[in-house]
Design goal:
The chain is an all-beta fold and about 130 residues long.
């Protein structure tokens, strides 16, 4: 098991930026596939960015965040990041990081992830 703790959420104006962090303990994070999910009030949880496991990894983004969000990792800090630029009000949600076992694959479904953080609120004001 790996324990995940998110941080970096907050209130930002439209067009602003935030960087979410997902710090892991218990296991080496690069050995897990990682995903950033979000859930807005009244909506289903959706995957917004993901990467495969390994020191060199594949990445994936949902269409609505392509070109604005970047998932990355710092192996020395055992931390994965989600850099969010050009934020829009529709990005408002609770953001969760998740880790799952894979073999150089991106995991697209939430049931494939075994470990979840507690979530961090991102609010984008118009």
């Amino acid at each position: 098991q790996v324990q995940l703790v998110e941080s970096g959420g907050g209130l930002v104006q439209t067009g602003g930026s935030l960087r979410l962090s997902c710090a892991a303990s218990g296991r080496i994070l690069s050995s897990y596939a990682m995903g950033w999910f979000r859930q807005a009030p009244g909506k289903e949880r959706e995957l917004v960015a993901a990467r495969s496991d390994g020191n060199t990894y594949y990445t994936w983004y949902t269409d609505s965040v392509k070109g604005r969000f970047t998932i990355s990792g710092d192996n020395a800090k055992n931390t994965v990041y989600l850099q969010m630029n050009s934020l829009k009000p529709e990005d408002t949600a609770v953001y969760y990081c998740a880790a799952g076992r894979s073999s150089r694959r991106i995991l697209y479904s939430d049931y494939q992830y075994d470990n979840w953080g507690q979530g961090t609120q991102v609010t984008v004001s118009s």
